[in-house]
Each structure stands twice: as C-alpha cells, then as structure tokens.
Amino acid sequence: MKKVYGSAAEALEGLLHDGMFIASGGFGLCGIPELLLDAIKDAGTKDLTFASNNAGVDDFGIGILLQTKQVKKMISSYVGENAEFMRQYLSGELELEFNPQGTLAERMRAGGCGIPGFYTKTGVGTVIAEGKEHKDFNGETYIMEEGIVADLAIVKAWKADATGNLVFRKTARNFNPPAAMCGKMCVVEVEEIVPTGSLDPDSIHLPGIYVHRIIQGDHEKRIEQRTTRAA
After folding, report:
1. What letter does residue 33 receive in the DSSP assignment?
2. Spatial CB neighbours of 59, under 8 Å, sequence gap ≥ 6
3. Do 135 and 119 touch, CB atoms closer than 8 A?
4. Is 3 strand, coil or helix?
5. SS3 200
6. Closest by Cα among 85, 87, 95 to 64
7. How do residues 149-207 score in pLDDT, each as one tens digit?
8. How far apart are CA 213 and CA 2, in angstroms?
9. What angle do CA 204, 163, 5 make, to 5 degrees?
C-alpha cells in the first residue's frame, strides 16, 4: 500500500469535502500541520469542524482558515493568541465547544481506541458539564465525555518511515498522536522520511497502522512568544 505522496495537495486528494470533521495536531505553534492546512485553504473546502487544542495565530495554523471563513466550528481548549478566532466567536460567526486540554486529548485517544465515552471529574460544576450525563463513583461526581472520531486527521511528526511509523519531538507529541489515532483517514507531514527498518522500535511514538498518507516538506517553525532580554 502506497503511503508516501509528493505534496500536501496530492496526499489530500479525494479526502476533502464541505462540512467535514477534521482533527488537527499541534500545541500552540508547535507541531502544526502547516503544509496540509495550506492545502486545505487552497482547496477551498468550507463549513469545517476542527478538533484542535487551539487555532494557531491569525496568519498561521488553523488561523489561515478562519481568515477565509472556511471553519464553521472549533472544538478547542484555548482561544488566546488569535484575534480573529476571538472576534468570530464573540460576534457569533463561529461555533465553539470548549474542552479542557486533558479531556480533549483523551476524547481523541478514546475515539482512536474504539471507546465511545468515558467519565471524568474535570469540568464538574462548571459550564463544561451542562447537558452532560453525571454519575457518582465512590461518592464523587463525574461527567461523561464522548470519544472523538473525525473524518480526517492531519498531523505533523519529526520522522517517519515509508510504512508510517512516526517519531515526534518534544511538545509536538502532546496532541499529534491522539489526533492521528482518531481520524478515519490520517495524513501526516514530516521533516524527514527515513528507510523502513531504520527507526528504533522503542523510539516509535505512533505505529504506522494509524497512518494512511505521508508527505515530507520544509517547515517554518515559528516562535509563538519571542522573549528576549538586554545583553
């Protein structure tokens, strides 16, 4: 089965349609599948629902799709750093489903593992719990959260082999693996594709069984908040 494709547009061919649900990896500006997001923008696919920790910044990450009004709904933990995200939400142009970060990551992981729902204490007694099933265990109240299964997962990894085994670097490992797991189709962009068999099995963070298509590309690697001091 061919997994390596020549470009983001080629890797997404036949997978995009209006109104689809996409799980996107990344944390802040770290590990964002920027090339795939650019290709989705160029394709003009609209009315999208994204499950992602955040939406990047105004001109990077999912922010570029907010600018072109291609996103209908965000399932996210953090809306800071992106003025257009906040503007659209406050004006009622964008639907937003808030999720605590750990809950969002676990919803993705659960969906990828075939777990339809789970109970968590996080959010009990807050607006997060409104409309959700409550259940007591050992005298403590929990709410039920549903696992996420997306039409498409787009993620960024550091290295891959041709079979789709992935290695992530540092913070990029936060949301990318669970996002990859929960997609019915998973497309990955990487910095380097290495020969099959060259990755140490103990260093593989996500097995290739979850990965359907791979591209290699150059990445911008922006710094979200640059902090310096006088010499």
Report:
1. -
2. 67
3. yes
4. coil
5. coil
6. 85
7. 999 999 999 999 999 999 999 999 999 999 999 999 999 999 999 999 999 999 999 99
8. 8
9. 120
